[in-house]
Amino acid sequence: MTTWLPDLDSYPGPRYRAIADALAADIAAGRLAVGERLPTHRDLAYHLKVTVGTITRAYAEAERRGLIGGEVGRGTYVKAGTVRSAGDEWPQLPPPPGDTPAVVDLSLCTPSAAGVAEALAALLSGMKDPAGFADMLNYPPHGGLPAHREAGSRWLTRHRISAGPETVLVTSGAQNGMAIAFTTITRPGDLILTERLTYFGMKALTATLGLRLDGLSMDDDGLLPDAFEAACRQSAPKALYTVPTLHNPTTAIMPTERRRRIIEIARKYDVTIVEDDVFGFLVPDGPPPIQVLAPDITLHISSLSKSIAPGLRIGYLVAPPRLMPRLEATMRALNYAVPPLMGELATRWIEDGSADRFAETQCRECRARHALAAEILRDGPAVAVPSVGQHLWLKLPDPWRREDFVAETRSRGIILTGADVFMVGRGAAPHAVRVGLSMPARREDVRHGLEVIADLLCSPAGATVSMV
Question: Which pTM does this prediction carry?
């Protein structure tokens, strides 16, 4: 057995990958001969001061590249054949000057932009008739041009929302829709209920509007009905804000019967439900939206930001007919109307089928990236909640604390969002992080980020930073 001991200083990135890269270099340089037996997992781990799990992953990566092979009882050997680098399958991120790996930002849920820019250029190049721009240069109706509301209605219907054009308000994205909804149905000082972990844009909005926000207990299926009813009985809330499908950040999908129970409680205590459904298109066979089950008490918010592109800034707010005049008045006060040109782009994509193709691209990409996460995190100690959404909810194992994990991954060039960002109220946030799988443009970058995370979880040297 060889006493092979690699120098890892020249190989940035996760330790297991550095070991595999060093092994490839030594084979290529002739420092390791074909058939030579490598150190045992335990011996190499001891000499390199890493965990046995890191060596196991390093040898598995080297075997995947065709560098080595092993047999039970005989150990691990250098294989014959052409050496393949990791870059043959997954291009590596180029490291910046020094030993710090390249930055991979996994902090947001930004959809894939594959093909969208090209489609936009083609669409704009075909809009050459000046007469077609006449309606886009005048003051539009506050709720949007009739054709744009009609297109929004058709788009929502494809995603199982019951909405005629007269109940659809075109908004500048979901955040604008939320602002219009809560400005209309609440007054400063009113109490709004939500899940104890909620979208941080909602926290910012309620603070701006002078609303009180209270978080309710939840489990793996989302908001707990008993907690909702107890809060209604004690505090007389004005509205409930919920993300029942692919909850942000936990990815929970609320079952149908629980949705019905939430509706029953809301009716009993006269609470308006504001349903944020921006991720709903990713679960076409999921439970029915709350708006379908209770259209008379629900304001439904969706957007094309997650299905097409966030820069489009087009969303749709569906509301009971009785609220539409007040919502349009709020729109007039806040931003008058959505720029008609952006509404026209969205409308044409909905009409020609491009929007459906973009949405399906997002679905396929999410499935591929979650499969990648399942592969890389499969044998680790953390619990990755299964999902098909644009983010991953990662429950950290002991002794990791979320703030230490976020700091440690950041020091290695990987940016995550800790659970405390989403916490409502004074309770302790869970030790978990949100991983924005959809944000990097390339899957290779996602793989790099996940491998750094997996390596760190298996070697928790920084887990005790906050323990004194």
Answer: 0.79
Tokens 């809560």 belong to residue: 182
Q: Is the pLDDT of residue 83 over 80?
A: no
d(CA 405, CA 416): 9
184 in Cβ contact with 143 (< 8 Å)? no
Structural domain containing residue 68: 15-89
Sign of CA dihedral 378, 381, 386, 391: negative
The separation between the first and the last C-alpha atoms of the chain, rounded to the nearest angstrom, is 43
> Token pair 């097409």 is at which residue?
308
Same domain membership, residue 270 and residue 194: yes
The C-alpha angle 302, 307, 308, rounded to 5 degrees, equals: 115
Separation between Cα atoms, residue 140 and residue 157, nearest integer Å:
24
What is the distance of C-alpha 311 from the center of its chain? 17
R_g over Cα of the chain:
26
What number of other Cβ atoms are within 10 A of residue 87's Cβ?
11
E strands, 322-453, where? Answer: 383-384, 392-395, 414-415, 417-418, 432-435
343 in Cβ contact with 144 (< 8 Å): yes
Quickly tell me which residue has 């020609």 as its tokens: 352
Q: What is the pLDDT of residues 338-386, one digit of tens each?
A: 999 999 999 999 999 999 999 999 999 999 999 999 999 988 888 999 9
The CATH number that applies at residue 56 is: 1.10.10.10
Which residue in 173, 2, 170 sits closest to 76, CA to CA? 2
The CATH number of the domain holding residue 396 is 3.90.1150.10
Label residue 104 left, alpha or beta by phi (over 0 means left) and psi (-120 to 50 means alpha): beta
Quote the CA–CA distance of 101 and 414 in Å, as a whole number: 9
CA angle 378, 413, 99 (to 5 degrees): 110
State the CB neighbour count (10 A cutoff) for residue 429: 17
Q: Which residues pair with 433 in a beta bridge?
A: 394, 418
Residue 116 resides in a domain: no
